[in-house]
Amino acid sequence: MSRLVIVSNRVALPHEQRAGGLAVAMRAALKEFGGLWFGWSGKRVRDEPSGRMHEIKDGNTTYATMDLSYEDFDGYYNGFSNRTLWPLLHFRLDLVDYRRDTYDDYRRVNSLFAEKLAKQLRPDDVVWVHDYHMIPLAQRLRELGVANRIGFFLHVPMPSSDLLAAMPNHEQLFSSLAAYDLVGFQTERDLDRFQSYVRLYRGGKVYADGRLRMQDGREFRAGAFPISIDTGMIARQAAAAVSRASVQRLRDSLGSRVLAIGVDRLDYSKGLPDRFRAFERLLESYPELHGQITYLQLAPVSRVEVPEYQALRRELEGLAGHINGRHAAPEWTPVRYVNRDFSHGVLTGFYRSADIGLVTPLRDGMNLVAKEFVASQDPEKPGVLVLSRFAGAAAEMHEALIVNPYDLDGVADALAQAHAMPMDERKERWHALHKRLQKHDITLWRRKFLEALAA
Ligand SMILES: O=P(O)(O)OC[C@H]1O[C@H](O[C@H]2O[C@H](CO)[C@@H](O)[C@H](O)[C@H]2O)[C@H](O)[C@@H](O)[C@@H]1O
Ligand SMILES: O=c1ccn([C@@H]2O[C@H](COP(=O)(O)OP(=O)(O)O)[C@@H](O)[C@H]2O)c(=O)[nH]1
């Protein structure tokens, strides 16, 4: 069997804990057969250029990671990846900050990753590159003579072609995807938008069998491969987690109140200010729920050097203070807002303790939290998922209460509906959601993508 080589900016080294769906999913995907995981070491170095390599072996997996200099990290990661591509791919043209110098940094760091990776590759390795940090990687590898199968998976949304085309140099960047054998997206809609871009802005052709042909004749394939979770493992973790002291403490602190939980990196794509406002709308529109419901928002900080993330943090602190100041009672705090990162061992217990899971991003590639929340529930008393129609997960999770996160009254009504939902209906909805997750888990995702890549 060929070796699987996974390439991503974020690598979850053994025993490392950090919020973020890509790393969680890759760890689960490598668990069965192992392979090589290649990417950034998580280290930034001063007075030294990028490129120092580290290797760690853990069971059947080898981790090969590269240090980045402060300057390169700033241009490639904080800059082009997270201030240009991230907002662009999340439909936020208003936040896109395009700079020629950070684009150059991005391309240079990708070239360096390609040089280091090319040295590690064996002829029959299957290479699977992940996410927007690494779009030009295959093109650079091809220039270095790498002829292996190379696939790419985009974890974030693919926006409408008119938005993509607003980015200077979009032709160069997005045409480089043709160097992959297969390009995967989270949903059919993302795939559809990319196909439109190829037709409308790259003069390309789209064939019914999934092949795309660029104007210059290069052909590659594209498809939709919705990512998932290790459903069985999450369920087992959740059942075990309820006896943990931290989970017990949360439960004890609630008394008889209903718990609504949100778990998100502190990112503007997650729609947290709107969610806070929707919760306040609930308290205003349904005064009988005062003192009856607690909203716990876990929001570990993310990309802390990027100014838009710093501004969001300030905004949320203000909003949480405002809602609590206005609505709290001496014995009840409506919003509990926590900027800490929790392990899955604890998080799954928190999900299971909640009656309502609140997942309301303005845009999200998939949103694994939505799936983890469902997988963690007690079948005898499952919680209700309130899910944004703009999360990739909504394309599969029809039995959730699907909401428009911009419609604060609608989200407040869905929360009230979840609060009042009879247990029979909760069970019925949960069974349907859970059944699909049992089949469409991380193993099926990995298998489907790799089979398509090998085909
Ligand atoms: O690596 P960071 O900059 O700390 O950010 C964490 C990850 O965020 C994004 O995750 C996406 O992937 C998830 C799994 O497919 C998906 O469910 C979610 O909707 C996406 O937002 C990002 O795409 C990753 O590259 C980051 O590692
Ligand atoms: O304190 C936390 C908060 C989140 N997560 C994990 O981070 C991932 C978030 O993935 P998602 O797809 O929802 O969003 P992303 O952060 O990748 O955009 C999920 O596996 C969460 O369980 C975590 O491990 N600890």
TrEMBL record:
It catalyses: D-glucose 6-phosphate + UDP-alpha-D-glucose = alpha,alpha-trehalose 6-phosphate + UDP + H(+). InterPro entries: Glyco_trans_20, Trehalose_OtsA. Its EC number is 2.4.1.15. Pathway: Glycan biosynthesis; trehalose biosynthesis. It comes from the Bacteria. Transmembrane segments: none annotated. CDD domains: GT20_TPS. Keywords: Glycosyltransferase, Transferase. Homotetramer. Probably involved in the osmoprotection via the biosynthesis of trehalose. Catalyzes the transfer of glucose from UDP-alpha-D-glucose (UDP-Glc) to D-glucose 6-phosphate (Glc-6-P) to form trehalose-6-phosphate. Acts with retention of the anomeric configuration of the UDP-sugar donor. NCBIfam families: trehalose_OtsA. Belongs to the glycosyltransferase 20 family. This is Trehalose-6-phosphate synthase. It comes from Noviluteimonas caseinilytica. The lineage of its organism: Bacteria, Pseudomonadati, Pseudomonadota, Gammaproteobacteria, Lysobacterales. The gene is ostA.
